[in-house]
């Protein structure tokens, strides 16, 4: 019935940038399991095994049918032995004992909680775990922990930040960002990127790319924007990273390239239209607890020179897996180096200019993949 004919299986690319992956996932049962395995390996800083499971998850998200027999995955790329074992157990038993072990693992459970705090990564989690800490409640109660400004904000707004951002909230924040930017640079382009550009209905943050068509960008723009929000009482946290871009520098060859654009990681106060405090203000306010009529939302702002905008847009739209495979494809299949700033052809020794994402795919000899098909 639904067996992949081997002629089709052989055609499936190992690179997710040569596949169209929508949000319509027929194999969530498997991909959720793989993502737990990958996360556990990330916590153990085992990048190879982590990537093995992430790549397998991407592949199964792409398959246009649910996997029900081992035959269904015959001949497909990205399925290593570990992955095959997990698939086999889920097919036969309905669940994987290895995944269950991970979910019950003390270290995994603690790291999962710690890394859910904004500003806390694997390194910090490792330190706190060794100190015997296990839960977010224990972290909050421990007044001796030395916290960064970012982590302090992470604990202060913890409940809001772990509850995901909805599409409606993303739309509301988009209006705020566009309005504020246009008061300083009326011609600036503001584009939502990240998961929301790929059509996701939920996200952990909202990502925006800003560029100014014309001679050059304004180094002061991000500062002006956050200063205004501060004045309006909307800014709960902000960390501006200044640009470190050097002209003529070869693109970064790292797999997970952080770029050199000026950017700003913020937490904004978004007033919730549904909650109304006004009636309380008129009556006996003193003995009424204030109702919180806002939600803390993580917002990333990135500003790029106009010539690099297409590359930045491609990089910031993700998914992370899709971007990783684009860069891997460029270097392994085309002898080119791709990052969020540009594309360098090592044979011709030139940077390839692009005014749109379509042109970048064309430079790489790839069929164009729409943003909503990049959910690898
Ligand atoms: P989510 O819904 O969880 O936010 P997302 O796909 O939007 O999912 P993000 O972590 O917001 O995930 O990242 C969006 C894209 O931007 C990813 O493809 C990632 O590679 C890229 N990205 C994130 N942070 C940086 C950074 N500091 N430098 C360069 N690129 C980044
Ligand atoms: Mn995002
Ligand atoms: Mn982000």
UniProtKB/TrEMBL annotation:
<keyword id="KW-0539">Nucleus</keyword>
<keyword id="KW-0808">Transferase</keyword>
<keyword id="KW-0479">Metal-binding</keyword>
<dbReference type="GO" id="GO:0006304">
    <property type="term" value="P:DNA modification"/>
</dbReference>
<dbReference type="GO" id="GO:0046872">
    <property type="term" value="F:metal ion binding"/>
</dbReference>
<comment type="similarity">
    <text>Belongs to the DNA polymerase type-X family.</text>
</comment>
<dbReference type="GO" id="GO:0003677">
    <property type="term" value="F:DNA binding"/>
</dbReference>
<dbReference type="GO" id="GO:0005634">
    <property type="term" value="C:nucleus"/>
</dbReference>
<keyword id="KW-0548">Nucleotidyltransferase</keyword>
<protein>
    <recommendedName>
        <fullName>DNA nucleotidylexotransferase</fullName>
        <ecNumber>2.7.7.31</ecNumber>
    </recommendedName>
</protein>
<dbReference type="GO" id="GO:0003887">
    <property type="term" value="F:DNA-directed DNA polymerase activity"/>
</dbReference>
<keyword id="KW-0460">Magnesium</keyword>
<feature type="binding site">
    <location>
        <position position="207"/>
    </location>
    <ligand>
        <name>Mg(2+)</name>
    </ligand>
</feature>
<comment type="function">
    <text>Template-independent DNA polymerase which catalyzes the random addition of deoxynucleoside 5'-triphosphate to the 3'-end of a DNA initiator. One of the in vivo functions of this enzyme is the addition of nucleotides at the junction (N region) of rearranged Ig heavy chain and T-cell receptor gene segments during the maturation of B- and T-cells.</text>
</comment>
<feature type="binding site">
    <location>
        <position position="300"/>
    </location>
    <ligand>
        <name>Mg(2+)</name>
    </ligand>
</feature>
<feature type="binding site">
    <location>
        <position position="205"/>
    </location>
    <ligand>
        <name>Mg(2+)</name>
    </ligand>
</feature>
<dbReference type="GO" id="GO:0003912">
    <property type="term" value="F:DNA nucleotidylexotransferase activity"/>
</dbReference>
<keyword id="KW-0780">Terminal addition</keyword>
<dbReference type="GO" id="GO:0006303">
    <property type="term" value="P:double-strand break repair via nonhomologous end joining"/>
</dbReference>
